[in-house]
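I hope you will forgive my troubling you with a question about protein structure. The matter concerns a single protein, recorded as an amino acid sequence and a row of backbone structure tokens. Please examine both parts with care and let me know of anything in them that strikes you as inconsistent. Thank you for your consideration; the sequence and its tokens are set out here:
***
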Amino acid sequence: MRTITINLNSLFDDQAKIDQLPEYMSRCIEFAGDGNDIVLTGAAPVWLYLKIAHSLHGKARKLTYRSPVTGDVEIFNHNPL
């Protein structure tokens, strides 16, 4: 198990495009691997955060949202310990 940070802003150049959503999700699932702790960060639209978070449920052990304003916000934690 390791912690992997995914900067959602790195998925697109100028602005996120809804028609590219399957590609964004696929890339994040690949980055995340299985059973790791994932941190989502970066300037991105809310819809992208929501879809990526949903796609990582069942893949990630723990999912955290990180921003300079809020700090770390735990979204889910399936660590049995």
Q: What stands out?
A: The chain has a mean pLDDT of 96. Residues 3-65 form one domain.
